[in-house]
Amino acid sequence: MKNDFGTMKGFSEFDYLGSVGRGGYYRNIIRIMYLDLERKEYLFSHEIAEKMESIYSDYDEETCNEDLEFLFKKGSVVKYKNDYSQIKSLEELRKKKYRYQLTERGRLIEEFILNKLNKVNSLSTTLDPNLLIRFKDELKGLLEFHGGEDDIHSKWNNIIYAFNLLRENYKGYLMELNSFEYEKMMEEDRFLLKKARLREYLEDFIKVLLDETQDIVTIIVTLEKTNRVEEILNTAINREFKKRELTGDVQYSQIKKNYINQYNRLKSWFLSVDGEPSEVDFLNKATINIIQKITKMAKMFLDKKKVSYSRKDSYLRVAELLLDTNDIEKVKEISSIIFGNFNIRHLKADYPQQVEVLKIEDSPNITMMMKPIKERKKTKVSYQIKDRTNEKLKSLIIEEKKKQNEVKNLERYIDNDTLTLDSLPVVTTDIKNTIINLIKTGLTKVYEEKKISLKGDKLYYEYGKARYHVFLFKLFRPEDENERTILKTFDGNYDAPNFRIEFIREEED
């Protein structure tokens, strides 16, 4: 099979990373060279060996030369013969025989490891709404931007840079809040101090996200309507191709594909594409879930603290209190309060009159007769249920006919499973009532799933699936509040938003 990707070719420059025996030595040599060559043109082997000896006690210059030779053969390091005319002794010749530098690939690999790979799990600790505002301002500048090829290319790169910062910041922060380490922190006392502030912080973020997203969606739709997106992308692609054509072999189609993918990724972040929810929708839901989790964890933590007292600790405190008390009478008093039985019952009766008794032993005995509680006998009551089967059957038949008539009448106005109010002629009262009931039923789904969809060239708020009688449908409300229409009927006209109803056909078994 033909391979057009060039993936069959190996890169020996990566071999030192997987070396089992001396991999650590090779990596340290590359790291030393990478850092030192930022301020020097080249290095000698004895300079590298000195730094390696500070890391490994059994390391020497001869070993360093062997390691450098291995890296040279693998293409990570390049060596040049030194200018011997400046060397004055054999010792200096031995130390300065070769000058070493990193190859371009070796430098790029180490740069990637140091600046990119090591920071993969280094997540942001701040959720910055200003990144969203900055991106909106950059994107808004395209509406009235007129410049040369270089200016447009630079402008587009600034937009993509702002978008990447925005995406990494928000996703990184949410990953951190969803991490196992953060959940462990939620179980600590100090979390309660942060809970209210963190929740308020996230709620403010959602508000900014929704507000700014509306503006960004409007900007993107406007750019697409005026074909500005295509013009800007073509100009930026041409400039990028000319720029990269000077430095190496590059295909125009690949650059074009990269730029189009950049825009599609940007667009799908804010707009629903092919029926899929936008990334902003996911971000909004994820943030709400985190807020709910924070509240739930805080409640669980408080409930746990209420019941997690130790009886052993309580007894120890009582023992300490008793030991600190020297008066035996005071000890008895404390004991009676702590261990006494305060569950007292009072017996009411007609006691005989008696003289004052000084001692309990002299008091007369009293015999008390306990009377049993009389049980109430419940009489059974029989009820006769009237048979209304025929009436129910007649009602069902009438209701079924009504539903069939609704379907039959409404089908005349449905085009490609879609009905929009502005496309309706003057309708009967029954049709009007059916449409109003569909809209009322659809609007009840607003809290289940709310998102913005692009239908044709218009933006709609999309509601969840709803069912009214035999109709399964989705309701779409115009994003523009001024987009309204008049629903004309024989009993009057109704001013309403230009709702769009999409009917969903259920597959028959």
TrEMBL record:
Pfam families: DUF2397. Residues 386-413 form a coiled coil. It comes from the Bacteria. InterPro entries: CHP02677. Keywords: Coiled coil. This is TIGR02677 family protein. It comes from Psychrilyobacter piezotolerans.
